Amino acid sequence: xxxxxxxxxxxxxxxxxxxxxxxxxxxxxxxxxxxxxxxxxxxxxxxxxxxxxxxxxxxxxxxxxxxxxxxxxxxxxxxxxxxxxxxxxxxxxxxxxxxxxxxxxxxxxxxxxxxxxxxxxxxxxxxxxxxxxxxxxxxxxxxxxxxxxxxxxxxxxxxxxxxxxxxxxxxxxxxxxxxxxxxxxxxxxxxxxx
Length: 194
Hints:
Number of strands: 6
Radius of gyration: 16 Å
CATH architecture: 3-Layer(aba) Sandwich
Largest sheet: 6 strands, mixed
Helix content: 25-40%
Oligomer: single chain
């Protein structure tokens, strides 16, 4: 199979404990866009994994390191993150920022970072962000705090945030009634592979 014929792989990281929550609904719409553009999506439910916080031991940065020293479910996730062409990160706003599940995942991606950015598997990684929040306002809810964290983190490592979709909804799945947002999410999935 030639490189141009290779089906692009997207890993979708769901950071909500609700399997049918609003951020998951947005992520599923992004997946629709990915699949309509010929890509393949694999969904990972972070809340269902045993992911411990980063220990700040810097074992992953030592010469001849084999990666993160923490032995948990991130070990099986790291190869998928590296091999994927793009990521979708979906999180609700919990207490004025991203969910704890999402934050722990992001912290553990430190093991993929290299000071020489161009040697890092994060360099030029295409990323889409999906967020939901309960307040009517992205600022009052804390959504803006989370979006800024994503921007700062992935800018620092040289990744490419292709786009962000976010919106307000209270009840699980309610966000699906926002037709314009659903359309934006699907288009983001297509753009992620362009």
